[in-house]
């Protein structure tokens, strides 16, 4: 009753009194739980300053294989029964050897199991061959994305030299391959039984193919994006000899344009259209669908492709001005829409926009050499820029993957890791934002209410962590419609910031 009276009182405060709230909330932690989102619409303009250090979110933690009961605040819907599974790096050194890059850390699996309003947490390191080999030697014996393994100190000089030496492969034989994997195993021993290559795409530059993280897919087509984040195959093949990690062979080359390859998913045939746009980097697709003879693909795009360098651990763990400089130099990611017309007539006039779609300003213009130049539509307004852009996009995949859609969810990045959750309406280009100062939410996962056909009829799950040892990490549940908090499940366990996850219903 006291809290209801208190909240009613707060709503009646004048603008002057509201300015006093941050101080009061900070002094009275019990109020913080109810008033933590009072700053969610505060924007950041220009260069960021005085960013808090998040190094504790990027350090080794202990696994928690035994279930830990979470403390519930608010409520979790009774229909929400299943497990949120997440993965990310959780171990960054073995003995005296330390990893250099965020992508290098050993995989830590997390499970939040929800059943009838209760939540239980556990975690365990993936028992990969690399994890086992490093653990047995108590040092890094397998090279990773940004870390070169040192030679075994027990070997003689000749053996140490040979352990670095590998003959480079033939770059001419490289191609991008998309593999179809059956949705179910034949038996427990098989992992990808029945997998087959359905298409093979030759890179534009044989010795320097593009780094890629994902590809788009509609009901009938695969969209592979060849971006100017290049992998120098010779550098990569000779990296051990040169004493360099894999990352040294990747470079951002903005003098090259981005190219879209469209493949018929059923035949594996590459369509003849040659689609180009200005240089950008995209790690994650939002969605792709077909309409009026076109493929429409929505992406989170960055104009600065040096983000892999930014994610070196020495950068992420900085504090003070050094941290501010790293963040302000990093590219920001924003949602963009591209239109790729599929049936382009040889007689189509040069300079014509070939897109027939009235609901998007994205264009596809035929050039003199027969290529199609694609200009994007921004799926946002200025308010998303104030949120630092958006990444880790998610939609209601069960009903809207490969179809025309309206909403997606992601993390806002006013820091080097996500510091807010955002719901984007791609039709009206409006936002809803959840934020709590000092806390860093992970990729949002949409879980629909059983039986719903509404695109936002469900909840958002996100693991929210903090570098503050006096606060608890928690699993957050938001109403997907209004983006208001329903509840949280606090767990007194240190967790690192991770990448991706999925919900498995029971």
TrEMBL record:
Compartment(s) of residence: Mitochondrion
Keyword Signal in record: yes
Binding site for Fe cation: 213, 284, 500
Catalytic activity: 5-cis-lycopene + O2 = 5-cis-10'-apo-lycopenal + (3E,5E)-6,10-dimethylundeca-3,5,9-trien-2-one; 13-cis-lycopene + O2 = 13-cis-10'-apo-lycopenal + (3E,5E)-6,10-dimethylundeca-3,5,9-trien-2-one; beta-cryptoxanthin + O2 = all-trans-10'-apo-beta-carotenal + (3R)-hydroxy-beta-ionone; lutein + O2 = (3R,6R)-3-hydroxy-10'-apo-alpha-carotenal + (3R)-hydroxy-beta-ionone
EC number: 1.13.11.71
Signal peptide (residue range): 1-17
Major subcellular location class: mitochondrion
Alphabetic keyword roster: Dioxygenase, Iron, Lipid metabolism, Metal-binding, Mitochondrion, Oxidoreductase, Signal
Molecular function terms from GO: beta,beta-carotene-9',10'-cleaving oxygenase activity; beta-carotene 15,15'-dioxygenase activity; carotenoid dioxygenase activity; metal ion binding
BP-aspect Gene Ontology terms: carotene catabolic process; retinal metabolic process
Cofactors, names only: Fe(2+)
GO CC annotations, alphabetized: mitochondrion
Cofactor details (free text): Binds 1 Fe(2+) ion per subunit.
Protein family membership: Belongs to the carotenoid oxygenase family.
Role this protein plays: Broad specificity mitochondrial dioxygenase that mediates the asymmetric oxidative cleavage of carotenoids. Cleaves carotenes (pure hydrocarbon carotenoids) such as all-trans-beta-carotene and lycopene as well as xanthophylls (oxygenated carotenoids) such as zeaxanthin, lutein and beta-cryptoxanthin at both the 9,10 and the 9',10' carbon-carbon double bond. Through its function in carotenoids metabolism regulates oxidative stress and the production of important signaling molecules.
Protein name: Carotenoid-cleaving dioxygenase, mitochondrial
Gene expressing this chain: BCO2
